[in-house]
Design brief:
With 433 residues, the protein is an alpha/beta fold. The protein folds into two domains: 136 residues, no CATH class; 278 residues, no CATH class. The chain has a 20-stranded parallel β-sheet that branches. A four-stranded antiparallel β-sheet has the order 1-2-3-30. The radius of gyration is 38 Å and the shape is elongated. The protein starts with a helix and ends with a strand.
Length: 433
């Protein structure tokens, strides 16, 4: 019994020793595994923090890049965005970085003048988290900004005289500028219906003009003043004027006194006269005089012909403008120096340039631009396209008053008419998303 007990006691002690030895091994293994997991979790937390910082850096780069693209607004907007993203440390095509820049995107308000930039990194950097797996997320920042809109104007009031507002509408429920946008370099005020102009933009305050109204728009520089250097030299020694009776007349280039293309004084048209021009850019220059088309008569260009009428000379008591109760029916040339220019007042003229019944006396069937940079214009009639030209009309004045019957038809054919209308970048660049 005692021996058996002793033997059993030694066996029991050995068994207990083995048990304790085995448990310490398990604890060591479990401790090692636990430390590995703990280190991995700590490492993952560190990496997640780095991923967050990288994600914010990508977003900041996208925000800055899209603002730069919208402000650039040219065909180089993608290069502009890429350069700004690179300043933030994200160079397109390097280290898994892509910078994607798009224009003409749909903005939250439904307009389509937004820019969008996405700066993406294919795989985020990992340091400690790789101990518990091979996970590396892709990260990206996306931003959208509203860009300025380019508005084209069929009516531009330069306001160089200081007249404010330079564009006024008086009781205009019948006026229709549908398809036409208008711009004043001072203010604009509409006392009545908004005229239906697509955009009414004003450098100062817009009071009721246009379907979409903007105040504090950038002023527009005169885009046509430089054409004055192409006006032929004045050969006149006296200004007795010329009369054209009914029939056809051929105008050749260059313009001379002999064939009537340079008129010294007023030109009076007493019958229906059709002009045939020898080139797309034939000129009719009236020095120190007006163009008077008799009531019921028409001065027009033949099919395939085109004309620019220039009023020039010296400042004085002369009237440098079209007048009379007849009709002007002609189209501007579609190429060359005077492309798209139908009527041009020399910007050196500052007196005798006002027009009191534009579009009415005479009636205007004109394709092209009427340039009256120092003229105070009262617009009461309608402007239709010429018989042989495209549907395009533009007008540049110092200031203008549009009465209730004023109407300018749609101007969608100006590209075909060879006219580049005045333009302006309107709006404020801002992040929208």
């Amino acid at each position: 019994m005692n021996e058996a007990f002793c033997i059993g006691s030694r066996a029991s002690r050995n068994a207990v020793r083995h048990i304790f030895r085995g448990e310490s091994g398990v604890v060591a293994i479990m401790t090692a595994l636990g430390l590995t997991v703990l280190i991995g979790m700590v490492g993952l937390a560190i990496d997640v923090g780095m991923w967050y910082r990288t994600d914010r850096a990508l977003q900041n780069a996208a925000d800055a890049a899209v603002i730069a693209a919208a402000r650039n607004g040219t065909s180089a907007y993608q290069n502009e965005a890429g350069a700004v993203a690179a300043q933030y440390g994200f160079t397109d095509g390097a280290s898994g970085i892509t910078v994607t820049t798009l224009n003409n995107q749909t903005c939250p308000d439904g307009t389509t003048n937004c820019f969008q930039v996405t700066v993406a990194q294919a795989s985020a950097p990992t340091f400690f988290s790789s101990l518990i797996g091979n996970y590396s997320p892709s990260l990206a920042g996306t931003a959208m900004a509203s860009g300025t809109q380019v508005h084209s104007y069929c009516l531009l009031a330069l306001g160089s005289s200081g007249t404010n507002p330079a564009l006024v509408g008086n009781g205009v429920p019948a006026a229709n500028l549908d398809g036409c946008s208008i711009m004043s370099n001072t203010g604009m005020t509409c006392n009545g219906h908004n005229t239906g102009a697509t955009y009414g933009d004003s450098h100062k305050t817009n009071n009721g003009y246009g379907v979409n109204q903007t105040s504090n728009a950038p002023a527009v520089a005169d885009p046509y003043a430089g054409l004055a250097s192409n006006i032929p030299a004045n050969p006149c020694s006296s200004y007795s004027g010329t009369t054209w009776t009914a029939g056809s007349k051929t105008l050749t280039d260059p313009p001379t006194l002999a064939n009537g293309q340079i008129v010294c004084g007023s030109l009076t048209v007493t019958g229906d006269v059709t002009l045939t021009t020898s080139s797309p850019g034939s000129l009719l220059v009236i020095e120190n005089g007006q163009l008077n088309v008799a009531s019921g008569k028409t001065l027009k260009t033949a099919a395939g012909s085109a004309l620019t009428i220039i009023f020039s000379g010296t400042a004085g008591s002369y009237t440098h403008a079209p007048t009379g109760g007849g009709t002007l029916d002609f189209n501007a040339p579609t190429s060359g120096t005077w492309s798209g220019i139908a009527i041009y007042q020399n910007p050196a003229l500052t007196t005798g340039v006002d027009i009191s019944a534009a579009g009415n006396s005479p009636a205007w069937n004109i394709s092209g631009l009427v340039y009256l940079p120092h003229s105070s214009v009262t617009f009461s009639g309608a402007v239709n396209k010429s018989s042989n030209g495209a549907s395009c009309f533009g007008m540049v004045v110092d200031n203008i008053t549009i009465n209730g019957t004023g109407e300018i038809l749609k101007t969608g054919g100006c590209a075909a008419a060879g006219l580049n209308l005045p333009t302006n970048n309107v709006g404020r660049v801002a992040l929208v998303k």
